[in-house]
Amino acid sequence: EWLEQWLVQATTSLPVLRIQALLCLAVAWICVRWVLARALSSSVGTSPVALWSAACVFLAGALSWGMTMRPEPLSAVLVMGIAVCAVWFLERETVAPVAAAAVLLVLALSSHHAGIVGFAPLLVVAPALFRWVRGHFAIAATIVAGTSALLATLLFVGSDLEQRRADAQ
User: Is the dihedral of CA 80, 86, 92, 95 positive or negative?
Assistant: First the structure.
């Protein structure tokens, strides 16, 4: 939102104000294509039917609520980023996708209440993630501690009791 405030202060042109949403949706589409390419079997390749179906559903969502000045485009990018990390984790089972997903999840949760959807890709890979955590407990504990500190910082820095009360109301 702090990036968006610069645009709002600089112009009242609606197309210019929607640049952020357009960029978020472009990044989300790239993530959708990446996940789709890995979800389809390598023997089938990228199916034109699957690609056109994904494009139609994506465009329907983008045109209905994605091209607004609301936080949905940013939430879409963050959730798709978590989905990319989930697929990346299933492919490699390394620490990088786990750490990236943790940071993206915190950003999604702190940016908008719809960010809770970011847990969905992690629930899908939960069995593999729990197996990985058993073998890498120290790394997992460090990631949890770091992301908890990040969440606390993002939720409470710059706020005071009066702002928290207004948010609750």
Answer: positive
Q: What are phi and psi of 90, to 5 degrees?
A: -60, -35
93 φψ region: left (φ > 0), alpha (ψ -120 to 50), beta (else): left
**H-state helical runs in 40-116:** 48-61, 72-92, 95-111
Residues 6+ apart with CB under 8 A from 84: 31, 34, 35
Q: Whose structure tokens read 């936080």?
A: 71
Supply the pTM of this predicted model. 0.76
Cβ atoms of residues 141 and 99 within 8 Å: no
Which residue do the tokens 């112009």 mark?
11
- CA dist., res. 63 & res. 66, Å (int): 6
Count of all residues that appear for the chain in the document: 169
133-167, pLDDT tens digit by residue?
999 999 999 999 999 999 888 877 755 566 666 76
